[in-house]
Amino acid sequence: MKLSRNLTLAVATASCVLALAACKPADTDPATTAATTDPAEGAVAKIPGLATEKEQVSYMIGMDIGNALKPMKDEVDLATVKRAIDDISSDRKALLNDEQATALRQGLGQKMQAKQQEEMAKKQAEMALQGEKNIGLEKTFLAGNAQKPGVVTTASGLQYQVITPGAGPKPQATDAVSVSYIGTLLDGTEFDNSYSRNEPVKFPLDAVVPGWTEALQLMPVGSKYKLWIPSKLGYAEAGTPGGPIPPNSTLVFEVELHEVIKPVEQ
Q1: 248: CATH
Q2: What angle do CA 194, 227, 212 make, to 5 degrees?
Q3: Of 6, 8, 3, which Cα lies nearest the Cα of 110?
Q4: Cα dihedral: 146, 148, 150, 155 (round 10)
Q5: Within 13 Å of residue 69, how many CA atoms lie on the same side as its CB?
Q6: Residue range 27-41, pLDDT digits in tens
Q7: For the segment 126-170, what is each residue's pLDDT rounded down to a tens digit?
Q8: Domain range holding 180?
Q9: Is the CB of residue 245 less than 8 Å from the CB of residue 238?
């Protein structure tokens, strides 16, 4: 959502909330109704600090306005916001005319857009520095790890170690597989764990990062390998924006291959 839309939302939230409430069908789930209403009070939910439906609706509208104002909280004075709401809702003459309000709205939108761009540039610079640091750590780690007994380094730079051998078939790049795995960063930070979901994961080998595509083709069904996937075979300098994997991160996996799933012939 663009910041200019946030600005508009802050002004129009109350009417939007009422429109959505009018269009939304009533909740007919008996369990939900029983859990949120008091039979003695009709359809009014029991919420500490908000005894009446009017208070609850008012607080809900205030929450929406507060969320809309968050991106620009340093640019507004809440007491003056309340004053404007009071003036408009009471039909008192506004201190700004429509032309002045439009000019101010446009100016604030431009200011917030510039602020957003500045923050984005700062974040990109921080990610670039972190990526450079991670590349250095990766180079040092993989060079040392390659010397350890049982660690194999492929031509691409992928490293693996056989934990449990398997005797089944190996998948091809056109196959899908069923696996269980734990994924961590070099510092041991866990970012994914299929065991915690209590079921294997199935996916085609051509739909994952190159390190997985290569490694799984080396594994017989029934085997368990430890993998060290260089960043160039993982998520590279992008990492997972907004996610748990920083730029240029080496990925460490323990993977069990349960099944090879052949594609269905058309």
Answers
A1: 3.10.50.40
A2: 70
A3: 3
A4: 10
A5: 17
A6: 444 444 334 444 444
A7: 888 888 999 999 999 999 999 999 999 999 999 999 999 999 999
A8: 148-261
A9: no
Decide if 158 contacts 214 (C-beta within 8 A): yes
| Residue among 137, 254, 237 at smallest CA distance from 190 | 254
Contact 16, 60 (CB under 8 A): no
Which amino acid belongs to residue 134?
Answer: N
**At a CB cut-off of 8 Å and minimum separation 6, what does 34 contact?**
none
The verdict on residue 130 lying in a domain is: no
**What pLDDT is stored for residue 19 in this prediction?**
42
102 within domain boundaries: no
Question: Residue 206: what are its φ and ψ, rounded to 5°?
Answer: -90, 10
Buried b (16+ CB within 10 A) or exposed e, 23-50: eeeeeeeeeeeeeeeeeeeeebeeeeeb
DSSP state of 50: B
Residue type, 178: S
Domain-embedded: residue 33: yes
| Number of domains forming the structure of the chain | 2
Strands (E) in the chain, as ranges, are 152-153, 159-164, 176-184, 190-193, 201-204, 224-229, 251-261
Which residue stretches of the chain have pLDDT < 70? 1-43, 264-266
Nearest to 177 by CA among 206, 152, 210: 206
Determine the length of the chain: 266
What is the per-residue pLDDT for 45?
Answer: 84
Pick from 123, 136, 135: nearest CA to 237: 135
Structure tokens at 90: 């009471």
pLDDT of residue 32: 40
Tell me what pLDDT residue 266 has. 54
